[in-house]
Amino acid sequence: MYRSQGWIVFCGLLLIGSVSLPGQAYQLQILLLAADSQQIARTVDWPEATQADSMQLLAALGHFIDELHEQAYLEASVDTLIWTDRRCSALVHLGPAYEWLALSPGNTPREWLSKVGFRERLYRRQALRFAEWQALQAKLVRVAAEHGFPFAQVALDSLRWDANGTLSARIATQTGTLILTDPLKQVGDLRLNPRYLAQYLG
Q1: For the whole model, what pTM was predicted?
Q2: Same structural domain for residues 88 and 105?
Q3: Which residue has the higher pLDDT, 122 or 14?
């Protein structure tokens, strides 16, 4: 949703017919509002001004936008690219740093949430980083599988975007079919520790 590959492909099409030759470096200039530049100066790694060729320049610019997304600037995008010989000026829209206003448990069992360390207070007025949400989501799916729901799905529900870049949502869990296994029975003369068998078979 917030990846920048789409505009990289588009910009790449603009470069067809003007492929750079080895040794022809390109210069990248990123243009932001002064206040925006100061806001992200210490939180984001800026790409090198000199890039080996046009495709590497676009890749570096795409990585820069992706990093802004990871830092909760979900609206960050390249509005305009201006090419002059081997110089590229990129006008970047930053937007607000998004925050969680609230993230509630929804229908997810409290026991599961406790096991993965979820606390509602950790999602009040905190930076909205989707990588952190995806990590929580993956943990809940694993816990669901441990409780006999290997096909459980966990997602955000009841999303509400409020003013100034804040998001309220709840955690929605669809458990799917409960799958239980019977106790293991050993057949034959070979004796193995039941606990070992259970761990080995998952």
Answers
A1: 0.67
A2: no
A3: 122
